[in-house]
Each structure stands twice: as structure tokens, then as C-alpha cells.
What we know:
Elements: E1 8-12, H1 25-37, E2 42-45, H2 57-71, E3 77-80, H3 86-98, E4 103-107, H4 116-127, E5 134-138, H5 140-143, H6 149-155, E6 161-166, H7 171-181, E7 186-189, H8 195-201, E8 205-208, H9 215-226, H10 230-239, H11 241-246, H12 254-262, H13 279-291
Parallel strand pairs: 1-2, 1-8, 2-3, 3-4, 4-5, 5-6, 6-7, 7-8
Amino acid sequence: MKKCIFEGCATAIVTPMHPDGSVNEARFKELVEEQIKGGIDALVVCGTTGESAVLNHEEHIRVIQLAVQQNAGRIPIIAGTGSNDTSYAVELSKDALSLGADALLMVTPYYNKTSQNGLITHYNYIADRVDAPIIVYNVPSRTGVNIKPETYLELSKHPNIVAAKEANGDISSVLKTISLCGDNLAIYSGNDDQTVPMMALGAKGVISVISNILPTEFHNLTAACLAGDFKKATEMSVKYSDLMDYMFIDVNPIPVKEAMNLMGMELGECRLPLVGLSDKNREILKAELAKHGLL
């Protein structure tokens, strides 16, 4: 049985920007502190929600370094270090670990659209060269590649590949993966709205977008699941179901960053090519935030 990186809710934390588009380091450190004080169980830094695709190498490792320093060992820091370039993924992973990251989140190679055998070779190549727990990240809506349960079984045989963030939306596939891999591969939901059903099947938690604005609530939701109180967890999930949907009213992380700005968190805009919400969608989001008392 492999050691679990975390149980509960990990926030895929946003990256604040100054008006000139540079990383707002001071605000980022404040966000890390706010998340920890909100009871979050882990942080994912430089993931999709953190705009990793538009951070250069120096910015990428600097944001990881800031998170590690501010955290000071209190909760696991998981660094997003995936790439469609296998060699670069190794380089970035080694840099993240040298700065003190506890684990790695590695998205499937995107655009290349490799085969299932290519996925196995890619991840094993990386896992052979970094001494750290790896979370495989499957998000075919973005990458064009889907990891099959049988592929997860092969990946789970490597001691450093310990978990998967599953965002393919297919609950039946999740069930099959859990059945095949057992304790050799922890599963985390990659979709906030599927947290409860996936945890009911045995997932260990969620890597969340909405916990950027509701860290305490989604820590509590996953804690209820872990305690077997799925009635309470379902009630909480239903309560926030519309807000979870509106976090994807446009491409992530545009809506969550807009929501946080509306809440007075002053995070700046997303970097191009992402642009702000339309006036119509901003008003929809604003009304939903007000409904939950977040404005």
C-alpha cells in the first residue's frame, strides 16, 4: 500500500498578477496563508488554475518556491510539472523538488496525443528519474488524450506513481480504475461537482477550483465523505451546485479569478490568450456569489 499524499480537499490555487501582467508575489503568499487558515488539506501550485501554461520557467519555479516558503511545512505542496515534452517535465520536476515541493502533479502530454503505450512510457521515464510521489492528471477535454483504466493499472506498478487526478467525467471508468488498482493508486476527483460520487466509490478527495473561494466549506465537504457521512456531503454539494457550474461559465481559471476579484481579493486579470468574462456572464456570476453571501 502506497503512502497517500493527502486526504480531503486540495486547492488548485490561482496565480495573482499585477496590472502589468507580472506575478504578484506578495498577494500570492497571502493567498497561500488564507487557504491554510481556511483548513485546506493541500495546495496544488502551478496547475491549470494557476495559469501554468503562460508562466515561463523562472516564474514557474518562483511561484513554487513562494508557496513552499509561505507554507513552512504545514500542508503538502504539490507542484504542477507536467509537459508534452518528457525531458522538460523531468527538468521542471527536479527544480520543483529542489525547492521543497512534496509531490508532483503531471498532466498527460497534450497536443502530441500519444498512445496508451506512450503514456506508460512517458510517466515511467519521469518516475524513474525523480524521487517523489507523482499524481497523474487526466483531463481529456483539454489535452485530447484519455487514460484508460488498464493504463492506470500499468502505471500503478511504479512505486513513485501514487495517485491520479481524474477529470474525464466518466464515473464508470473511475470505478473500473479503482477496481483494478486498489490501494496502489489513490484517486482524486478533478471535477468539483463529482467529488461526492467519486469519494463514495473510494476516491481520497478532490483537487478543487471552487475551494479558492470556499476552502473551509470544501474541506468540510470532503471531511464528511471521509467520515462516511455522505448525506451531509451531498447536501453541501447540492447547496453549491450552481456555483460550481458557474466556475466553468468560461474557460478555467477566468471565472474563479473573476469571482475572487468581485469578492475584493484583487488578483488581477488572466494572462493572454485568456480574456475576462463578458458583461452578461459577469452579472450571472455576481448574482450567484451574492446569493451565497460572498459579496
